[in-house]
Write the structure tokens for this entry.
Amino acid sequence: SQAMEAQVDAGRAKSIGLSNFNARQVKRVWQSARIKPVMLQIELHVFFEQREIVTFCKALDMEVTAYAPLGCPDIGSVARRIGRARHLPALKMTYPLEDPLVKKIAKKHNRTPAQVLLRHTIQRGIIVIPKSSDPTRIRDNFN
């Protein structure tokens, strides 16, 4: 963190952010930093809500940014491959964009499943950075 603090002091960075840190790591940086981090970027989506780390960061007045806020297409196989399937409820092993409940909510409100998922995360006070190279999807994500 001292290297980043030097960048802030030199005017080359406005603030300090962290990525893929757990609560223990955030706490360690927070306790030792002269310039406190303002952001934590983590994987987060409707089936991987990371409530504990979000609550922890909010208590420190840190913002949270969700990358992959739409989930990943084959979350079940990824979770099994890294040995984390036991932490994910069996019903939530589907791709969020293909989840029947998400589709039902989207249809009811005349929105896309992506818009429903992004809104859910934004309403939790979390910044979202969805990835897309399709201009139509990018526009839809803003609505």
Q: What stands out?
A: The chain has a mean pLDDT of 87.
